[in-house]
Amino acid sequence: IGINPRTFSASHYCRAAMEGVTLGMNYGLQRLVRLGVRADQIRATGGGSKSRLWRQIMADVFNAEVVTLKVSEGAAYGAALQALWCWRLQKGEKVAIHEITDAFVKLNPAETTQPRP
After folding, report:
1. What distance lies between CA 18 and its chain's CA centroid?
2. SS3 call for 49
3. Bridging pattern class, strands 41-44 and 65-69
4. pTM, full prediction
5. Does the pLDDT value for residue 116 go beyond 80?
6. Domain segments of the chain: what residues?
7. CATH topology for the 10-113 domain
8. Do 18 and 52 meet the contact criterion of CB atoms below 8 Å apart?
9. What is the residue-averaged pLDDT of the chain?
10. How is the chain split among helix, strand and coil, in percent rounded to 5?
11. Where does residue 13 rank: exposed (0-12), middle (13-18), buried (19+ CB within 10 A)?
12. Cβ(64)–Cβ(113) below 8 Å
């Protein structure tokens, strides 16, 4: 099928992997859209969010603005915020999770990526 060292480099395989992962995420997003969820903005976290190319691929595939957070470690940070929320609930505070995230989750506008037309 024409895939050989002369026609494909490591960068081709890396981009194909990024596109494949993003298309897989889009499959899940489209299922949520059919349930009525709107996604006007995608928040990218973790190591992949540091790649300008991957953010552009996501913006184009999702046809939505992609933003990153000032704290890029999404999974660990999210777990810590959930732990804080649970701790405060355990103490008897009536606090909603959005109050925690509103206080601690800050966007990084310098890395906002728009979909290409």
Report:
1. 13
2. helix
3. parallel
4. 0.82
5. yes
6. 10-113
7. Nucleotidyltransferase; domain 5 (3.30.420)
8. no
9. 94
10. 55, 15, 30
11. exposed
12. no
